[in-house]
Design the sequence.
């Protein structure tokens, strides 16, 4: 099967076809990781076209919907069951930001790697991250931002966690297209990862640090 057809369907915003081809790719024995990389590659292409004004928000929204459909099909294949959770992660897209494809992908990979995940959704206010940190006993608070205008909200969350003395028992992690390692360090985040698979490695490392600190 030619994986380019999945990318083309994603670019065309053909939701039914993305679903059909994603299922067909898995059925034909193509590995879930390869299908996932294909969908991400397709979304990169959408991003490039959006940036170059070749397509506009309505088209991007339909492609995003098609991407969600594809990811939903992959989700059960990425998750393993019956494993003792490695740790608990609270994840959300920060206030002012509605982008959730990357955040969902990271959440999905965390689940697949054996973490318990509390997904707080999009446009998450500072207080909700704090409440999750206090009430749900999470080991990691992970934040996603896709807009330069929403990145500052990550700093607000970390400062509030610090103020409330919560940073002694949990770690913070940030990511999203405009976020860099330097930015993460500048706001005092414990971890940064550029994509969903390195996010899993980083989360494992942070859980290891927490165990040593206890
Ligand atoms: C899809 C999309 C949309 C969709 C979102 C649909 C949805 N449900 O998410 C819609 C159409 C709604 C949208 C709206 C807007 N968008 Co938009 N959007 C995009 C687009 C094309 C793709 C984003 C995406 O899903 N990428 C695919 C995923 C898989 O990648 P990712 O999100 O980067 O995630 C990966 C990593 O970053 C990382 N990661 C992500 N989160 C986290 C978290 C942690 C903890 C870790 C460790 C890692 C991590 O791992 C992920 C997987 O590998 C980008 C272009 C781009 N190249 O990023 C623009 C983009 C982000 N949007 C942009 C803009 C300007 C907007 C709007 C303001 C447009 C407008 N004028 O209204 C609005 C803002 C709405 C809002 N308040 O949020 C700009 C942002 C510019 C900037 N520097 O701030 C971009 C960069 C496009 C551009 N070049 O102009 N958008």
Sequence:
């Amino acid at each position: 099967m030619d994986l380019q057809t999945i990318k083309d369907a994603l670019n065309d915003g053909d939701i039914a076809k993305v679903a059909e081809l994603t299922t067909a790719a898995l059925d034909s024995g193509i590995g879930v990781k390869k299908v996932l990389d294909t969908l991400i590659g397709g979304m990169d292409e959408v991003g490039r076209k959006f940036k170059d004004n070749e397509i506009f928000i309505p088209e991007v929204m339909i492609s995003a919907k098609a991407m969600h459909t594809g990811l939903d099909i992959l989700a059960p294949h990425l998750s393993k069951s019956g494993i003792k959770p490695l740790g608990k992660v609270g994840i959300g897209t920060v206030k002012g930001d509605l982008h959730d494809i990357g955040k969902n992908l990271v959440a999905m990979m965390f689940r697949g790697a054996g973490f318990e995940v509390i997904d707080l959704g999009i446009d998450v206010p500072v207080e909700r991250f704090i409440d999750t940190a206090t009430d749900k006993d999470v080991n990691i608070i992970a934040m996603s931002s896709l807009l330069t205008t929403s990145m500052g909200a990550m700093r607000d969350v970390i400062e509030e966690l610090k103020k409330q003395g919560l940073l002694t028992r949990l770690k913070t992690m940030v990511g999203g297209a405009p976020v860099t390692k330097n930015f993460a360090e500048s706001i005092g985040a414990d971890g940064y990862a550029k994509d969903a698979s390195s996010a899993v490695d980083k989360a494992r490392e942070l859980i290891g640090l927490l165990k040593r600190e206890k």
Summary: The longest helix spans residues 57-78. The chain is about 55% helix and 15% strand. The chain has two domains: 4-78, 88-213. Strands lie at 88-94, 116-124, 140-144, 171-175, 191-192.
